[in-house]
Amino acid sequence: MNGHYIRQASLKKLEKMLLPVTSKIAAPTDREGRDILKKKLARIILLIRERIKTLIEAGEIIKPFFDGITYNEKIINYTSDRKSEAQPVINGAIKSLSNIKNFNAAGIEISLRKLSEELEIGFRKTAEFIRIAVWGDLISPPLFETMEILGRQTTLQRLKSFKSILNHYLNTTYPQ
């Protein structure tokens, strides 16, 4: 199935086609887990539908929503060249996102835009570092919605993990 047909397919049809792939990654063991998986998958499909060209590509894009991510050497090197900007963004994002009341796309966006202003770093650059930390790449589905679907706990865990990885690879510590 190519991108044209994917975009034309109903949400229910896409869910049916992608559920087996997603179930292999998330592997829910009970009915409640399967229901949660289906709801999460529906939200993910709405984010990625316009971007995907094949079902195989859809599976690859869906995987980081349910599975851990890795930071390849290219991403580490890219960030290390910008560490003076990345460090305060990652620290600030951890603090800011820990404290927002409603962990939804709108609240996340407001919080991160405020952080960008406080740090006097362009928002595009702020979002870039956060995207790398949360998704493991410079390109991701829409950032705020992605973070909402991942949830506060997973988002913060990924930010903290990226902070630790940078500390290890860059032999640099972030100020507290």
Question: Which runs of at least 5 residues are low in confidence (pLDDT < 50)?
Answer: none
Q: Find the count of extended strands (DSSP E, 2+ residues).
A: 0
In CATH, the architecture of the largest domain is Orthogonal Bundle
The major beta sheet can be summarized as: none
Query: Could you estimate the helical fraction of the residues in percent?
Result: over 70%
Specify the CATH class of the largest domain: Mainly Alpha
The first-to-last residue Cα distance is 49 Å
The coarse overall form would be globular
Return Rg in Å.
17 Å
Number of helices: 9
Give the number of domains: 2
Q: Secondary-structure element order, as H and E?
A: HHHHHHHHH
Under CATH, the topology of the largest domain is which?
Answer: Arc Repressor Mutant, subunit A
Strand content: under 5%
Classification by helices and strands: mainly alpha
Q: Roughly what is the average pLDDT, rounded to an integer?
A: 87
